[in-house]
Amino acid sequence: MSQPLIDIGANLTHASFDTDRPQVIARARAAGVQWMIVTGSDAQASQAARELCRQYPGTLFATAGVHPHHAKDVTDAAWPRLRDLLGYDEVVAVGECGLDYFRNFSPPAAQRVIFELQLQLAVDAGKPVFLHQRDAHADFMAILRKYRHRLRTAAVHCFTGSETELRDYLALDCHIGITGWICDERRGSHLRELVKQVPVKQLLIETDAPYLLPRDLQPKPRTRRNEPMYLAHICATVAACTDRPVTQVAAETTLNASRCFDLPALASVE
Questions:
Q1: Angle at 178 between CA 135 and CA 69, to 5 degrees
Q2: Is-cis flag, bond preceding 219, omega within 30?
Q3: pLDDT, tens digit, for every residue of 36-62?
Q4: pLDDT score recorded for residue 59
Q5: CA-CA distance, 154 to 21, in Å (whole number)?
């Protein structure tokens, strides 16, 4: 694909990439994915994401935050580390933060406290938020509504929800991240219709690698590990669902990501 792409969510510090991380990044770039945002899931992982970005300046960016699964493990020492990380240009958002009641690896009450603290952190730092929500929509919206008017921008990571949830996010002017879930005929078929309702300027695409490998890839990869290079396939699926040329969707989502996260890549795509 000639039009460059931005993967707004790739877990490139994940252990599954330890043996071939440089090759994974090279394959992504060869497939047209010129920029990737590395997801931070706690203070330590966020630090690792930032350090990885330093090895690929201008190509990799990072988020810094605490995934709701890790809310119960947050110590007071985490907050100075996160504030420090948010002072670096390559750290472009607070997150992945939010609520996840599907697994409840952390108690819901702890999740809500840590979510609010991170939203305030984003307000203080003037950074976007990279959001996660699963089976917690009512509580999630109640908290997000209190802060949204003070937040720079907000991206709902890996949207897989209902039409009601989508409308609630759009009403708060959130960007919507679409993953390879849309390529799964078993679980993601509803997204093929819902993606048509996402305004052009609010649509983002991501892989969430190494998770959510698109089911309809041909030929089938040898492993279930997802990689950023498959973002082009997700882009093509979104284009087919919205009846737009794939080059147009690529250009739109790249520009949207550049603006949402204030990436230097913006100058290359406008």
A1: 40
A2: yes
A3: 999 999 999 999 999 999 999 999 999
A4: 96
A5: 28
pLDDT over 80 (residue 269): no
Q: Read off the amino acid at residue 219.
A: P
Which structure tokens are listed for 18? Answer: 């330890």
Distance CA 74, CA 59 (A): 30
Torsion angle of the four alpha carbons 157, 262, 152, 168, in this order, in degrees rounded to the nearest 10? -30
- H/E stretch holding 188 reads none
**CATH code of the domain containing 248:** 3.20.20.140
Give the pair of three-digit tokens for residue 34. 């010129």
Give how many domains the chain has, as a whole number: 1
C-alpha span between 123 and 252 (Å, rounded): 27
> Is 106 a residue whose pLDDT tops 70?
yes
Burial of 71-83, coded b for 16+ CB within 10 Å and e otherwise, reads beebeeebeebbe
Task: Give the tens place of pLDDT for each residue, 64-94.
Answer: 999 999 999 999 999 999 999 999 999 999 9
Is the pLDDT reported for residue 119 higher than 90? yes
Across-strand partners of 10? Answer: 38, 209
Three-state DSSP at 7 gives strand
Burial class (CB in 10 A: 0-12, 13-18, 19+), 27: middle
Determine the residue type at 149: H
Where in the sequence is the domain holding 193, given as residue range(s)?
Answer: 5-269
0.85 surpassed by pTM: yes
